[in-house]
Amino acid sequence: MTDHSFRFTHALCRSPARSVTDGLRAVDMGAPDPDLFLAEHAAYVAALRAAGAEVTVLPAQEAFPDSCFIEDPALCLKGVAILLRPGAPSRLGEAAALRPDLERHLSAVVELPPGGFVDGGDILCSDDEVMVGLSARTDAGGVAALRPLVEELGYRLRLVDTPPEILHFKTESSLLDAETVLATPRLAATGCFAGYRVIETAEGEDAAANAIRFNDPVMLSKGHPRTAARLTAAGFDVVELPTTQAALVDGGLSCLSLRYSLPGEEQ
Ligand code: CIR
User: Fold this and answer.
1) Class for domain 10-260, per CATH?
2) Domain chopping of the chain, boundaries
3) Which of 23, 34, 49, 131 is the most buried (most CB within 10 A)?
4) Global pTM?
């Protein structure tokens, strides 16, 4: 298997619930509009399909306002789903609710042993390394429980810090290829990407850092022209997608899918 950190055959998404209006946010800039959120979500799913993904869109779960951010309750590596334990009390139940779907779609499901919390948004994976940012949602106990699971799958786990001002490590970073990350200047300045080539988001465009490389395209939040130009100049094929509604509840592009390949079906 090569380039498994950005070449995928499948994605799992969850339709935004009407209750997304109650989604968690650090600063209230108004509630998202559920219909507009659905339209932006549909564009996202269409872009994944255009990039070659077989996408399953799971039904909305009204009981969990943040459940469209399906990246947080699980981590998919080499066809295996690791069921995580989200650190926000209102999101804890999302993992158990997702389990049957992971069992249906992935080749195996393993559960994070007790001991702490991990949100998928704090995990950035390259081909052989899993970086996990400690944050308000992800603690040392959770990372200690996660370490043997990812090592078993052939990755090394590296603990990094999520700056206190940001929700998740991947709020401000994403993988562009096996050696390159996109990150905000603030996160890059911590030195956590030593060994990687770093492309920084342009000034005032921090929100562009929550991007995804899915097969050929890099999907980038619309409205960040100077970061888009940097990526294009570096040779990436940029597809811009609207994220206005996810942004109101502190979400971005990576949070909206679990991306994976099944053994034998790698691209
Ligand atoms: C939350 O606070 O949990 C949601 N409102 C946003 C989650 C975004 N997820 C992510 O960055 N992976």
Assistant:
1) alpha beta
2) 10-260
3) 23
4) 0.96
